[in-house]
Amino acid sequence: xxxxxxxxxxxxxxxxxxxxxxxxxxxxxxxxxxxxxxxxxxxxxxxxxxxxxxxxxxxxxx
Length: 62
What we know:
- This protein is mainly alpha-helical.
- 97% of the residues lie in helices and 0% in strands.
- It contains one helix and no strands.
- The protein has one helix at 2-61.
- The protein is rod-shaped.
- Keywords: Membrane, Transmembrane, Transmembrane helix.
- The chain crosses the membrane at residues 15-37.
């Protein structure tokens, strides 16, 4: 009976470690995704601003 209890404790401990690893993995993945989003959002805003400037210049020439 003690062997079964020890085995169950090991399995429970392993599952706790797996859950902690999964939480850390998804937290890091979310952080990287957020940083990537901010980077590309900034670049998209710059492109949009340049496009608006070019369209204003074109409209002013006509």
